[in-house]
Amino acid sequence: MNYNKYIDHTLLKPEATKQQIEKLCTEAKQYDFASVCVNPDYVSLCKELLKGTDVKVCTVIGFPLGSNTTETKVFETRDAIHNGATEIDMVINISWLKQGLLNECINEIKEIKSTCGNHILKVIVETCLLNQQDKINACKCVIDGKANFIKTSTGFSTGGATIEDVKLFKTHVGNKIMIKASGGVKTFEQMKAMIDAGANRVGTSNGATLVSNK
Question: What is the DSSP string of 173-194?
């Protein structure tokens, strides 16, 4: 199995430097990862550094809280794609989700997916802040919003991906959409367990270590 192609090689720390982003892209090329995932201000640089490879440039929208207006998220998405992003990881409006305002969540996802066009859209739902019903509702929102992936976590809240959440998502999304496990995946064994549970992609800042030590 090509575990490298499950990895979104990630660096989203606010203090990330240009040199660190360059190292991220060098590693992504070396190990032929699925993508690099960076903040929007580094999308143009990554596009240039990854030219001629099949490593995608992924960026985050409404990150990390999800509380931007829909109009702001749409603008962010359009700007990111213009700058060279080919995959978009947006944060759902967690407040709406927790209040049961599912139509609002669905309509926002639809608007952003419309802006994405054929580009992949992943929806971060921040599982550590959700109860069981919220997680089930999140699955419905992401499916009905026509996104490509449901993603567990930003990695910036109180917890990251768990096997239990990946299994729960798989039960409720089946093969309708894909699953990205993200946040706290630090060993090859953890990554493999996420994939075995149903994850199609794994977001990690430890990608090079995971594939070189397996």
Answer: HTTSSEEEEESS--SHHHHHHH
Q: Tell me the one-letter amino acid at 208.
A: A
- Cα gap 199→181, rounded to integer Å: 6
Q: Which of 56, 113, 135, 151 is catalytic?
A: 151
- Region 95-115 average pLDDT: 98
Model confidence at 212: pLDDT above 90: no
Chain Cα centroid distance, residue 169: 15
For 178, what's the count of Cα atoms within 13 Å in the CB-facing half-sphere? 14
89 is annotated as an active-site residue = yes
| Options 56, 89, 113, 170, the catalytic residue | 89
Contact residues for 55 (Cβ-Cβ < 8 A; gap 6+): 25, 28, 29, 32, 33, 34, 35, 36
Residue 1 has pLDDT above 90, yes or no: no
The pTM assigned to this predicted structure is 0.97
